[in-house]
Design the sequence.
């Protein structure tokens, strides 16, 4: 018998997004990941654009058999925060992209999630890299599916400062009520926040490695990072952009990439100035049982070797 562990079945719920695009490519390429579906949400752009972007990315990756379904156009409360001030009007501005070679599912995101969970012989991990509205809606509508979910790992929040507001990260600010549902679900939850992803910087050396790849996929990724990087310089004065979303998928592929801490985590849903802020009790001040595993420290060299090797392998298929 082989000692190679079985691939981890995942649903990737996202709002592509330059960093979501890299996360999708990583999930497609890794033999440790069994990408069962991609579902989309509002966030970096409208959900219509996010869905088209997901189809274009999967077309670029040659993964046109992966089902894609459109999800939430706004938060549980009905608001629709967009981050296209970072990612451009389309959500994926920059290099030319292929038109989708296939269509999205007739099912909604939540219906496709349920279908994937119901059909799986093993619990499925949900990876959320945008506002977590679809996941919360799934939990509310289909509580019978909880035992089909192995873990929810999400990119969002922070143990410190925010980015969309001074205290709140974009994804959690866009739908704090949804995150509150997820944190209260009793499921294993892993939070990959800004405190971790700001260690995953696409430095000039990283971008140069992308551009030096002998295939269009690598050069496209380099151009994505160029557009993304210019936004981060203009808005937050970063010299190099943090590539947030692939950290979630990378954590599943190589668990030793990240150091974690079990904590009680809450999200502020009412504050006049702090709505969407994640309250991470690193020192047990509230004396509440931990409800999340919080990412604290990244091995950046190992992370970028994994991401870049995966892009290069995918581009050379």
Sequence:
């Amino acid at each position: 018998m082989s000692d190679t562990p079985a691939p981890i079945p995942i649903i990737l719920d996202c709002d592509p997004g330059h960093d979501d695009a890299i996360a999708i490519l990583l999930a497609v390429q890794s033999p440790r990941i069994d990408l069962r579906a991609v579902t989309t949400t509002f966030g970096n752009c409208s959900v219509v654009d996010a869905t088209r972007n997901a189809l274009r990315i999967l077309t670029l990756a040659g993964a046109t058999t992966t089902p894609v379904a459109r999800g939430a156009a706004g938060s549980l409360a009905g608001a629709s925060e967009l981050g296209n001030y970072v990612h451009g009007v389309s959500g994926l501005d920059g290099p030319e992209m292929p038109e989708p070679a296939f269509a999205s599912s007739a099912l909604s995101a939540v219906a496709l999630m349920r279908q994937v969970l119901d059909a799986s012989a093993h619990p499925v991990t949900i990876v959320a890299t945008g506002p977590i509205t679809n996941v919360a809606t799934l939990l509310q509508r289909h509580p019978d599916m909880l035992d089909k979910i192995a873990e929810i790992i999400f990119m969002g929040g922070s143990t410190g400062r925010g980015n969309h507001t001074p205290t709140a990260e974009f994804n959690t600010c866009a739908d704090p009520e949804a995150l509150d549902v997820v944190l209260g679900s009793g499921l294993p939850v892993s939070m990959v926040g800004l405190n971790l992803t700001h260690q995953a910087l696409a430095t000039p050396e990283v971008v140069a490695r992308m551009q030096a790849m002998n295939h269009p996929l690598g050069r496209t990724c380099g151009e994505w990072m160029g557009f993304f990087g210019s936004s981060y310089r203009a808005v937050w004065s970063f010299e190099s952009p943090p590539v947030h979303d692939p950290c979630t998928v990378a954590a599943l592929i190589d668990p030793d990439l990240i150091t974690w801490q079990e904590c009680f985590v809450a999200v502020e849903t009412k504050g006049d100035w702090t709505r969407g802020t994640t309250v991470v009790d690193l020192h047990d001040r509230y004396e509440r049982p931990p409800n999340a595993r919080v990412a604290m420290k990244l091995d950046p060299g190992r992370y970028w070797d994994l991401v870049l090797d995966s892009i290069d392998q995918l581009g050379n298929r």
About this structure: The chain has one domain: 8-315. The chain has a mean pLDDT of 96.
